[in-house]
## 1
Amino acid sequence: MKLLMFGVAVPLWFSELSVGVGEEWAMSDSELETLRQSLSQLKQQVARLESEIADREVPAVWAPQRFYSAFYAMTGFVLGGVAAMASLLFNVIGSTVAGEHPLRIIGVYLTFPLGEQALRLTSQGGSDYLIDDGVILALGCCLYIGTGMVLGVVFHMVISMLSEGRPLIVRAIVGTLLGVLVWGVNYYLILVWLQPLLFGGRWITDNELLPWWVALSTHLVFGWTMAVISPFGEYRPYRRLTD
């Protein structure tokens, strides 16, 4: 049988084939749209998973955006104790060489909380305290080191901000300037009026009890020690062995 299409007679089987091909193309377009929708959903899911991974992933190297004050304050507190022990050892050796009591500086240092009677702790007669003089001097050493730990925060932060990563001579210069500054402020701007006000005497700043150069050298040894050991308190980001 033949059909008349556009004025031309064509076989019936050709007409059926054309209809079949059209239906097949129509089904292919529908399937393609379905695939596109599925692909879009998969892309959205991938983007969501990537976002979750990025939020939960720990960076290999974390670095502070600014000066890491909290870290340097903590490490300065520890290093200050080491520097205080070094300066105390310097005074013990110096006092022994000069024929004085090894802890003479501690006796003078304790006049701030205990007054003039603290000077007897390092004298031959001893003091009248109920607690043994050796125990009081030991507590004075702890107080001395504790004060150094507090000062270590200031020293380490300033040295790190001004000279971190620089040669030792640069750090030593900064430590020297800090030592002189802290000595001058403590002795001639604070203690010179605060101790008489609270305890009725000026023993720490008395050159006969504690010469100014001894006090200054103590602060310098502290500052130099902080300059030497400051690299041990530098912040270094943790790096995994696989990086």
Note: The helical segments are 12-56, 69-97, 104-109, 111-114, 133-163, 168-199, 212-229.
## 2
Amino acid sequence: MPILRVRPRPRVSLTGDDVTSLRAVVRRNVIKTVCRVGLWSLFTALGAYWFFPTLQRLWWVLLTGSTEMGALSDVTQGYVGNVLALMSVLFSILAGNSYTSLYSQNEAIFCALFAEVSEAKALMEQIALVCSGRPFYRSALENIRRYVESDLRRLERPPSILCACKPRDDPLESILYLTSVGVPSAVYETVRSLRQRRGDRLGAVQRKLPPVQMALLYVLAGLNLVSLLLLALGKSTDAEYRLCRALFAMMAGGLMMTMRVIHELWTPAGGAYNVDGVLRVMIRGLEDELDQRLKGKTFSDTRLPPPPPSFQRPTTADAATTAARRS
């Protein structure tokens, strides 16, 4: 008995341009984040080292009202050390919770966007299957393009504004009106599922931490630095003074680095921690396929496997053998 061989379908793989584009986007976002985090931290550390004597004298005058700077007593040093420890604990609690919350939100944004892009591709394929050859086919594809450009791409816009758009400006509702006559069409369930994915994405993008919390983090970081300044008063030798000055600069740079990383997570777009670069690569394939379908090209694989032997058309020899057996 001959073995039935099915011709394998071509596998979908990333092209060299796609991989290069993805790497370029990731590299560009990493460079932006390194510049915004590293340069801010470096300049803060250099400024803290340079202005250490001025800041020390300024805060001494503001807190004590005296221009004479002297060494702190053991009791005062212990008190200032306890204040520094308390401020450090408060900053670590608030900064740790903020980082955890923002990282979880960023992860939810990635998952929601991947689900929404997959659902948008499913809607495009269903419209191509159901509406191909009809007068409104091109209008339906144009509405999908409008949805991608005016909604899916707009990560920088507030989600509440996108959610409050009027029905006449909603491309998904326009698709339903085009494909439905009296009763919901076959694409209703896909549009409904895409709306749910859109709601998940808008809810994930919505900022959970208000700007006042970022301001409080900067205030707590500044209080840590002030306490550290006062602990370095009255050092006897130049070596100890230079050591305290260098440690203060390192502390200032480290706090600024922590704050800039949290701020990168808090910013919705434009960095290595954000999804906008990956989103551009994801929807580029969707937009290319929309362009090809608008030009009339198809993407279905119509090559079918050969029929099984029992359903093949008999040859002349097989027909003669069958007739001889019947006679």
Note: Residues 161 and 202 are 10 Å apart (CA to CA).
